Amino acid sequence: MSRIVRPLDRYVFVEFWKIFVSTALGFPLLLVVIDLTDNLNKYLSRNLPRKNIIMSYVYWLPDSMFMVLPAAVLFATVFSIGGFTRHSEITAAKASGISFYRLIAPILLGAILACGLDLALGEVVPITNQRRADLLEEKSAAMTQTTRYNFAFAGEYGRVYKIGSLNTGSGTMDQAQIERKGSGLDYPSYVLTARTARYDTHHGWTLGGGNMEVVPDTTPTTFAVSFDSLRDRRLTERPIEMMAKPRSPEEMRYSELTRFIRAQERSGSDANLLRVERALKIAIPATCLIIALFGAPLATSTQRGGTAYGIGVSLATTVIFLMMIQLTKAIGGKGLMPPDLAAWVPGAVFGVIGLVLMARVRT
To answer: Is the terminal CB of the chain with fewer CB neighbours within 10 Å at N or C?
Structure first.
């Protein structure tokens, strides 16, 4: 291990990590100050306790850090390598037989760790955002939109649900009917009706007080079965997934968003924008590694302008990257480009430029 991890590797990694942590925490804290300045009067008008306001910004940190981490990697890469260049440390390393590629290996390792951290944040953000909304009492308006009446919903396995009323707050349905189109004796068609249904996270839906009529295709004979309660293992949709209004992607984890997209597509809704948002949950963390490959050779030129040049390059790259994300999100959401591809276009562009710069750098 001592032969693989040299003192120089530890030095480069520590210098990168110090700048990365400072940037990853500094930018979100700056956003907190700006948001608090804009919204403090609104929160005080709700008579919110000061503790709730403070804790709401603690819960907001993962969300603000999710988009910031690629920029933090870029800043850490540019300033660490720029510092090595200005102090002739890269020249000394090359004179000792250490190539530029080997020198930046600890930085790429740090970018991979940042990528994993960003992926974890993407799964934590929906939970913390929900908690923040509760603390700031921002759900009061949304609570009036937890019911849906007299609608049909296309489920998996060729099933169609006709629901009299749905309440996501209590997790209940009234006057539910499930129709399934089958074929043959082994997979017959049936119509299932139930007066009520209740959902819980452990057992799913439990139907109460109804009938199930089986209609075989090969014979005119039908038969029906009555039940007091029944659990249908194919009825896996959660109450919120059967609502007409889409949830915000920030309120759902990757797996939840995937299920919600399928439900929207089965119901005939346009889910292109949601598909872009889902792909971004992976594409943005992956950009941490891509942006390190882009920033490492670019940082060797910061010696000409010093710190101001490094800040300018980093900020300009961050702004361009964020603008490209918004542009490709709009293009993918309109269906002008495959949604999953649209999310990866900004990273692909920077990745190609980074590989070209990396090939041209003096090793």
So the answer is: N
Residues 134 and 281 in one domain: yes
Per-residue pLDDT band for 42 (boundaries 50, 70, 90) equals: confident
- Cα separation, 214 vs 327, in Å, equals 51
- The residue length of the chain stands at 363
**What do you get for the CA distance between the two ends of the chain, in Å?**
25
The answer to whether position 1 is within a domain reads no
- Scanning the structure block, which residue is given the tokens 């190539």? 99
The per-residue b/e assignment along 184-209, b for 16 or more CB within 10 angstroms, e otherwise, is: eeeebbbbbbbebbbbeeeebbbbbe
d(CA 163, CA 177): 6
For the purposes of burial, counting CB atoms within 10 Å of the CB of 343, is it exposed (0-12), middle (13-18) or buried (19 or more)? buried
Cα(23)–Cα(73) distance, rounded to whole angstroms? 8
**67 and 154 share one domain:** no
State the Cα–Cα distance between residues 188 and 97, nearest whole angstrom: 74
Using CA atoms, how far apart are residues 72 and 78, in angstroms rounded to an integer? 10
User: Residue 141 pLDDT > 50, yes or no?
Assistant: no
Structure-derived torsion over alpha carbons of residues 123, 129, 130, 136, reported in degrees to the nearest 10: 170
Task: Please give the torsion angle defined by the CA atoms of residues 344, 346, 347 and 352, in that order, rounded to the nearest 10 degrees.
Answer: 120
Give how far the C-alpha of residue 22 lies from the chain's centroid of Cα atoms, to the nearest Å: 23
Torsion angles phi and psi, residue 36, rounded to 5: -65, -40
In this predicted structure, the answer to whether residue 142 has a pLDDT above a threshold of 50 is no
Q: Is residue 70 located within the same domain as residue 93?
A: yes
Find, among 150, 148, 172, the residue nearest to 162 by Cα: 150
Question: 114-118, 165-169, 297-301: which has the minimum mean pLDDT?
Answer: 297-301
Range of the domain at 213: 147-242
In which element (H, E) is residue 284 found? helix 272-299
SS3 helix, strand, coil % of the chain, rounded to 5? 60, 15, 25
